[in-house]
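Morning. Coffee machine broken again, so started the prediction first thing and wrote up yesterday's gels while waiting. Chain of 546 residues, entered below exactly as on the submission form.
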Amino acid sequence: MTRHQGSQFVVGLSTLLLAAALPACGIRGRPQPPLIILPAAVSDLSAVRLGNEVHLELTVPEANADGSQPPDIERIDIYAVTTLPEADGAPLVLDEWIEDANPILTLDVVVPEEPEAGAGEELEDRADNAPAEDRTYAPGELVTAIEALTPDIVEPVEIEREEEEDEEDEEALDEGALEAATDATPLAGPLVSPPLPRVARRTYIAVAISRRNRQSAVFAAPPVPVQPAPDPPGRPVVTYTETSIELEWTAPDTALLPVQRAAAADSAGEDGAFDESAGEAEEVAEDAAEAPETAEQTEPADAVEQTEPAEPVEQTEPAEAVDETEAAAEVEEAEPADAGETPAPPVLASTTLLPLQTPTRYDVYDVSPPAETETETETEAGGGPDAADSGIPRPLNAQPLAATSRAGVEATLGVERCFLVRTVDTIDPLDSMPLRSSPSETACVLLTDIFPPAVPTGLVAVAGAGAISLTWTANGEADLAGYVVLRGRDPEAELEALTPEPIAATNYRDTEVEAGLDYVYAVQAVDRSDPPNVSAASEQVAEQAP
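Came back before lunch.
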């Protein structure tokens, strides 16, 4: 190959290599948009109203919105706004809430780097000892805060909605009014039921912000009512056994009671519903019995007693005060073709327009040990949220209790236990938001072992060879220290202890006996408490010394 041919070969090879490399470099492909990473939303923000405070709780997200890690989060902003429910029932979007909400708390988030060997404990020590306002939070960490309710906070604000939405709502209302006007059918009774009482509520919103100031999706906690809290119940009284604790307390004077009274047995229908007509009949009959001199003027009471919903209409007799012609016309219109076979239609049950009032209920809290009680936290001065590491206080009961007592709490002897109770009222008939009171007085009790062991059983005495031998059945207590053997000469006399200290065995040989004399024996069980608990004496057995 000549030099000229070699040069041509090299040039051709370079061209082929360059053409193959160009697509790989992406020159001919379309440019891709930059990858935008957004932090994940705070999805577990919760708010609980306790007395005059709102306790907040959330977890710092551990990933980005696309699931990638580590999360790109610089801080979490928490907003709050107090509003009234929309009259037209149209929910407001969270973006509109953000515009009128006030920022109440900012949580600084630091994504920790891999610490050097031996530096992990030091970093954890610094985080625990840092002041609340200077604290930083790591991904996955549980964060709690408290906001005290003040008069300016509970005052609801009016949120302005978008003009387009307002115009659409006005058009919908105009169309509805037009349809109502064109409807010529007359309606009996009120056209609009009385409005349900709605209450102001406070909504808390959390937004995660990245280092490039990009926001996550907005998350709102269920709203909490801002009405004055109910009165707390009385201080609980604690009683206990070896295994369980029982609490009892008194209801506050302002406790809500059920509106509907219990139905009488003879005033209930087949399905157990209360028959108001039967109740009215009973009241009329009682009035007639109390006023016999006016019995002649109270004939409608007899008519009520004779009118039975299940009987045919033809058996219904009208009252004497009703005109006979009008009564006959009504019977002809209501009487079916075959009155003997077709009974009268049943009386329709009445339904209240407003939801029934929910009675006051209660939550029981275990605050053992009482190092920092909730009462001290709630009475702190200052209007801003205070960080708390203990989390939102949670009651022992899964659902609020209707009774003023709580039994079945597990007991451990030798441990001090403290309890308090809160009143729980249900606010707003549609949303049924719980409103809890401030805590009652805290009741603390040291669960002292004051329970003696069981009385020993199966005591048997056998005489032989200058002694009397005793045996009995062993007790099953875990803290049993032993048994004390008692002896006397007369069943009526006081028995004295033969063993100065409790013995662990379940048998004893009494060698200090005189031949021919009768002896009476009994056994007591003793536990390890300080002072020790002693059981009652067992059944006595008598035996004569040989």
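The CA atoms of residues 244 and 318 lie 64 Å apart. Going to sketch it on the whiteboard this afternoon.
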